[in-house]
Design brief:
alpha+beta; 2 domains; 1 helix; 4 strands; about 35% helix; about 35% strand; transmembrane helix; transmembrane; membrane
Length: about 100
Amino acid sequence: MSEAEQAQRRWPGWALLVATLLVIVMLACPLAGLGVWRGALALPWFEQSLGGARLVGYSTWNAGCEPYTGCAPTREESYVVWLVYETQPADKRAYRLVRVPIAH
C-alpha cells in the first residue's frame, strides 16, 4: 500500500477526532459560563504584576468598588477583573475589564 493510500485511510479518523473535540469545546464553554453565573463553579482569586500594572480578579459583593478599597456590600455577588495601574503610591488608576454576575 502506498503512502498516499495510507494517508487517505487515516483522514476520516482525524476529521472525526477534530469534529468531536470542536463539539466538546462548543458545549463546555457555555456550560462553564452557566456554572459560574449560577454559583456552582468558583472562579479563582488572582493577582499578576508587571511593572506598575497589576491584573486582579476576585469575587465580591460590590462590583463597582475598586480593589484594595473598602466599600459597603450590595445584594449582588459578582466576579470582577481589574487592571490597576500605579505610577506612584499616591497615583493609582483602576479599570474594570470584566464583570460576571453570580446568581445564588
